[in-house]
TrEMBL record:
Name this polypeptide is given: BED-type domain-containing protein
Domain of life, per lineage: Eukaryota
GO MF, one annotated term: zinc ion binding
Pfam families from the UniProt entry: Dimer_Tnp_hAT, zf-BED
Organism: Aphis gossypii
The organism's taxonomic lineage, starting at the top: Eukaryota, Metazoa, Ecdysozoa, Arthropoda, Hexapoda
InterPro entries: HATC_C_dom, RNaseH-like_sf, Znf_BED, ZnF_BED_domain_contain, Znf_C2H2_sf
């Protein structure tokens, strides 16, 4: 008997029991004379079956065939004989094989499973949300051709299916994940602001900030809701109430950060919540007033010549930039001059009157391109008047004075680390920095004075407990600053007392019911004494006339114990070494959680509050791309969902 060969080739070759030296291909019925050698059958299978589905299935099997080699010749050829040592394989003429039909791609590969189609649809929706593409992209012929080239088995979902089913489904699944994470948070803070779309539709965005169970600071967009009525305090409070209830965070909110608009401040008062005015907005208003960048000359009193000079200089810079922005000839001439001087090819930047930092950027760029700009202006017939040497020095003074404000704005606008605690120390550092700047020009010196005055006026009471105690509490609970950041020791001590009160409030509900226990023991002791000493006296004579003091004394004793515990915790915290300024304060609280106990809980409460409403404003920049000229027919509900997905999808 012949030994059974386990090679995969025998799935496609048959042995003839009557002719042991002859095998037959199952696919084409070609008879091959086999003499038990090591020849490869690759040629035969590749030549006859490479275009068929069966050859594709054989690919892995063919590569493993190292024990059998079959040399295939055309069916009309004679046998090929080798030496005896190498054995021989002869191809026996047989019936000509039938020509196999080329299989189409659809027949070669089965349709994708439903799970893969769902993944494909989800990927399309995620692309639309993350890249801010219009829903109509699925109808674009170029995109359709691309998908067909990649894999023609997949068909793009229709625009209607995306809008009515796929986006809502992805929104609900993402929302459920956030709700689960948010339900585990003890404290949250909110930011909110209003944005007007290209279609003059107003939306109010609300973002939430909190620590998850691993003490990671999280930021999510909760909603971007269309405002259906006038922006009165009552209406805005109703909108915020609906959002808060939808997300079930009524009892977790520490504060809401918004701009200083009277209507939104009144709305938050109606809600009974702490309001924090956006530090970036206040700083923006301070610098704008100092620069007079959005004033007309008629708004300035004639005796305030310094204000007029500042305003004229800003307007001059705008005029120069505006000319080069609108003149292709002038811009080309400027670029040519930059090339001649081997300077970097830079464009001028226009500012926005409502954003002082854009004015700083405009002036910085003018200083960088000063030399080629002055040279090219001499050859241009319609070029605006260039600054004089004194005015260039004033522009340089402006940039030097405004740079610290830019640095502060960037630092308090971060979303990765706690920022509220940094406002007091950063403002103190800002005023010191500006005060130490040596302005060369008289206009620069006047601007320096105005910047200090405007900043001090808006942030003068930030260390005090009114109108907002949150800044001082957050600062003293930051292990990088503690009391060292305060200008006033009295304000620092007041913040310490308020923090200790919060520690007491936190300890009380979590402490054993000492009052009940003491009262129980006290009454038991008195009853026993009275029974021994006054058992024969009438009941009326046994009445304890000091009962009215018992509850008061017991409460005071408990409060004294709680207060001493809070004072001990705070003292222990103050005795710990300061963190480096660049260190993460949350890591400190994570490492000292067991030791500081209740103080840890109070610290996290204020660490989750952002110093600005910038998170909401960042949403607006994305919203402007979502509700664009290409997609201005988006329904408000879809705008809300797309902004939500764009901000909250895991990257």
């Amino acid at each position: 008997m012949y030994k059974k060969n386990r090679s995969g080739v025998w799935n496609y070759m048959d042995k003839d029991p009557n002719s042991p030296r002859q095998i037959q291909c199952k696919l084409c019925k070609l008879k091959i004379k086999y003499t038990n050698n090591t020849s490869n059958i690759w040629d035969h299978l590749r030549r006859k079956h490479s275009t068929a589905l069966e050859a594709n299935k054989l690919a892995t099997q063919i590569e493993e065939l190292d024990d059998i080699n079959v040399s295939n010749e055309p069916s009309t050829s004679t046998a090929v004989t080798h030496s005896h040592e190498q054995h021989t394989v002869q191809i026996i003429p047989g019936p000509p094989p039938k020509r196999q039909k080329q299989l189409t791609l659809m027949n070669r590969f089965s349709l994708p499973p439903e799970s893969k189609v769902d993944q494909f649809y989800k990927a399309v929706v995620q692309m639309i949300a993350e890249d801010m593409q219009p829903l109509s992209i699925v109808e674009n012929s170029g995109f359709q051709k691309l998908i067909n080239l990649l894999d023609s088995r997949y068909k793009l979902p229709s625009r209607k299916l995306i809008g009515t089913t796929l986006i809502p489904n992805l929104y609900e699944s993402t929302r459920h994940k956030i709700e689960t994470i948010l339900s585990q948070a003890k404290y949250v803070s909110l930011t909110s602001d209003v944005w007007t779309s290209l279609n003059t539709i107003s939306f109010r965005t609300v973002t939430v900030h909190f620590f998850d169970i691993d003490l990671n600071l999280k930021t999510y967009v909760l909603t971007t809701r269309k405002l259906e009525s006038n922006h009165t305090a009552q209406y805005l409070s109703e909108v915020l109430t609906d959002v808060i209830k939808e997300w079930n965070i009524e009892d977790k909110i520490v504060a809401i950060v918004t701009n200083s608009g009277a209507n939104i401040k009144a709305a938050i008062r109606l809600l009974g919540l702490n309001h924090i005015p956006c530090a970036a907005h206040k700083l923006n208003n301070a610098v704008k007033n100092a620069l007079r960048s959005d004033f007309d000359e008629s708004d300035i009193e004639t005796d305030h010549t310094e204000d007029v000079e500042i305003m004229k200089l800003v307007k001059m810079c705008r005029s120069i930039v505006g000319h080069f922005k609108h003149s292709e000839v002038s811009t080309r001439a400027l670029h040519e001059k930059q090339k001649q001087l081997n300077s970097p090819i830079l464009k001028l930047k226009q500012d926005m009157p409502i954003r002082w930092n854009s004015t700083l950027t405009m002036m910085e760029r003018l200083l960088i391109v000063k030399e080629p700009l002055m040279l090219v202006s001499m050859s241009l017939s319609r070029c605006p008047k260039m600054p004089s040497n004194d005015q260039w020095e004033s522009i340089n003074d402006f940039v030097i004075l405004l740079k610290p404000f830019e640095s502060l704005t960037i630092q308090i606008s971060s979303e990765q680390r706690p920022t509220l605690a940094k406002v007091i120390p950063l403002l103190r550092g800002l005023l010191l920095s500006v005060n130490n700047k040596n302005s060369v020009t008289y206009t620069g010196k006047f601007l320096k004075k105005k910047l200090i005055e405007e900043t001090t006026k808006r942030f003068n009471d930030i260390e005090e407990m009114y109108p907002s105690h949150l800044y001082s509490k957050a600062t003293i609970l930051d292990p990088r600053f503690k009391k060292a950041a305060f200008i006033s020791n009295e304000n620092a001590n007041t913040a310490e007392q308020e923090v200790q009160k919060e520690i007491v409030d936190y300890i009380k509900p979590n402490a054993p019911e000492r009052n009940i226990l003491e009262q129980s023991v006290h009454h038991t002791t008195l009853t026993t004494a009275e029974q021994l000493e006054h058992s024969s006296q009438p009941v009326s004579l046994q009445e304890n006339l000091l009962t009215y003091l018992e509850a008061t004394v017991t409460t005071l004793r408990s409060q004294t114990t709680y207060s001493s515990t809070a004072a001990t915790l705070f003292k222990q915290y103050m005795n710990i070494e300061f963190l480096n300024i660049q260190d993460d304060p949350i890591l400190f609280w994570k490492n000292n959680r067991q030791m500081l106990g209740a103080l840890y809980e109070v610290a996290l409460k204020y660490s989750c509050i952002p110093a600005t409403s910038v998170p909401s404003e960042r949403v607006f920049s994305k919203a402007g791309q979502i509700v664009s000229a290409r997609r201005n027919r988006l329904l408000p509900d879809n705008v809300d969902k797309l902004i939500f997905l764009n901000a909250n999808l895991e990257r």
